[in-house]
Amino acid sequence: MKSYIYLFISLFIFTSCTLENSIELETEADIIQYISDNNLNATKSSTGLYYVINNEGTGTRPTSSSNVTVAYKGYFLDGEVFDQSDSDGISFGLNQVIKGWTEGITYFKEGGEGILLVPYNLGYGPNNYRTIPGGSVLVFDIKLISVN
């Protein structure tokens, strides 16, 4: 009986790892396809975040622990919007948001604008989160209004 339990646990762990790895591979391919389809000039960071700088900005550059005000629109690769701020933006600490924002916002200076393409491992992970399906690539149009 014990051997069946160990077998079940081993298969569960193997299947979970395989599922997560296949999501990651699909995510990378989907991001590359999106970049191609939308003719974007994106840069890939060492973490797998893709970003587009349309306007770097001229003000202060935030650090990963800065408090910032950002106007944004968040959507999936199919264009469906899942969240957005008004033009005044919202304020938050960069150490209190998804990893893709903590890293990505630091590529801009105040007044900067661009796009963040956030793979699931830098977003909400492989599990569903509110209205965001697990494993989702998230796209954000962002404008860094200020470093507070």
- DSSP summary: helix tally: 2
Euclidean distance between termini CA atoms: 61 Å
Strand content: 25-35%
Q: Specify the oligomeric state.
A: single chain
| Broad CATH class | Alpha Beta
Mean pLDDT: 87
Level-2 CATH architecture: Roll
Question: How many β strands by DSSP?
Answer: 7
> What name is given to the CATH topology?
Chitinase A, domain 3
Total domains: 1
The Cα radius of gyration reads 18 Å
Q: Which residues form runs of ≥5 with pLDDT under 50?
A: 3-26
How is the biggest beta sheet arranged? 7 strands, antiparallel
Helix content: 25-40%
**Shape label:** globular
The arrangement of helices and strands along the chain is: HEEEEEHEE
What does this structure look like?
The chain is of the alpha+beta class and about 150 residues long. It has one domain: Roll (Chitinase A, domain 3), CATH 3.10.50. Helices cover about 30% and strands about 30% of the residues. The chain has 2 helices and 7 strands; from the N terminus they run H-E-E-E-E-E-H-E-E. The chain has helices spanning about 1-35, 100-105; strands spanning about 45, 50-55, 65-75, 80-85, 90-95, 115-120, 140-145. Strand 3 and strand 4 form a beta hairpin. The longest helix is centred in the first third of the chain and has 36 residues, at about 1-35. The chain is globular and about 35 Å long. The chain starts with a helix and ends with a strand. Keywords: Isomerase, Rotamase. Its EC number is 5.2.1.8. GO terms for molecular function: peptidyl-prolyl cis-trans isomerase activity.
